[in-house]
Amino acid sequence: MSARTIRRQPVETGVSGWEALAPRRFPARALEGGQSADWLIVGAGFGGLSAARRLRQLRPQDRIVVLDAQEVAIGAAGRNSGFMIDVPHNLTSGNYSVGGAASSLLEISQNRMAIAFAAGIAEEYGMPATTFDPSGKINAAATERGLRLNRDFARSLRQIGEPSETLDAAQMREITGSDYYLGGVRTPGAVMIQPADYIRRLAAGLAGEVDLFENSPVLSLGRKGAVWEAVSTRGSVQAPRVILAVNGHVESFGHFRRRLIHVYTYASMTAAFPGGAGAERWALLPADPMGATLRKISHGGQSRIVVRTHFTYNPDIRVSERQVARIAAQERRSFDERFPALKGVPMEFSWAGALCLSTNHVPAFGEIEPGLYSACCENGLGTVKSTLAGMMAAELATGTDSESLRQFRRQPPPARLPPEPIAWLGIHSVIRWHQLRAGREG
């Protein structure tokens, strides 16, 4: 089979505050010359590094090579909001209320398995609470409609035996220091992470056990006899088995074309400030999925707040600096409305981050060619879903049978999208409508 040329690479826009605050603990090295390995993993984010760790558990004697097109945590893994959520969380549904009991309980079980895997990593590598914090999260409501959505969410959780705590406006004010919110619903099982620091600490912990090459984009990938060969800028890797953990970028490798929705979301992080805004750390999801996500973090003895708003459909997997700046101005207004006493605190970082969705809310997973495996399409929950997909891809590729893998494999493939421009018009219109309806929640 001839090698497939990878004609586009992801482009990151803006500097992620998470990445800027996460120190490197090992030197970056790029791929040089010809290499051979038992396993090649493409992508050093949540999926790729989780696959590498699971492979180390299953095949400790095998040589594992991981390639990343950029430095670790500069890409999508270091650009998300850092919520590892256990309960169902479907961004495309218009609300968070869970569906059927059986499917919801299965999803919760899978999410918690991924969180437990991550918790084992955090414990082994000594991650502090500022990096890995099992503190739960709050769905915050700023409108009467948001309160109704929260009531529906809490009711649906009770129906499947899941705990939650309803918070009133006074409790929300005590937590956040803001009068903006009318109420909230706390779920205890979520873990809050500093995503870039988690990924960099995981990569550092795997050093010596796997060979990680950064700034080494795969420019072509093809099968040569019994092995696959990936060619990068200054070197190549041959391996009989390859795991692609590149999220929506898997389309660039020629797989799942016209089945994945490439969406970007946007975030800004304040400069450090000494106090205010309630408790030391908190994490808010909007009652409406298209609203504003906020987190307060502590770093170096001072506080910062991260605001994430807005979604755009970008099938070319890139956004402009102008787009980031425009949405950053909206995030400034959202922040000032919530925290008028902090209007003088500047936004130090603003950035865009890629999401990958499928219309039927399933991953792009499985053996897609002999010896080539996909652990992609996280459906807006990259921290948990990509961790899970990486684990499952390692088990599938090693022939490790488990009930978890059998259940994970029962999912259908991502549904096909309509042709352009119908897809663009439809997706763009749905996003725009949901964002307008979110109103004050945004």
UniProtKB/TrEMBL annotation:
Pfam families: DAO. Gene3D superfamilies: D-Amino Acid Oxidase, subunit A, domain 2, FAD/NAD(P)-binding domain. Residues 38-396 form the FAD dependent oxidoreductase domain. Keywords: Oxidoreductase. The keyword Transport does not apply. The keyword Electron transport does not apply. One of its GO terms (molecular function) is oxidoreductase activity. InterPro entries: FAD-dep_OxRdtase (IPR006076), FAD/NAD-bd_sf (IPR036188). GO terms for cellular component: cytoplasm. This is Glycine/D-amino acid oxidase-like deaminating enzyme. It comes from Castellaniella defragrans.
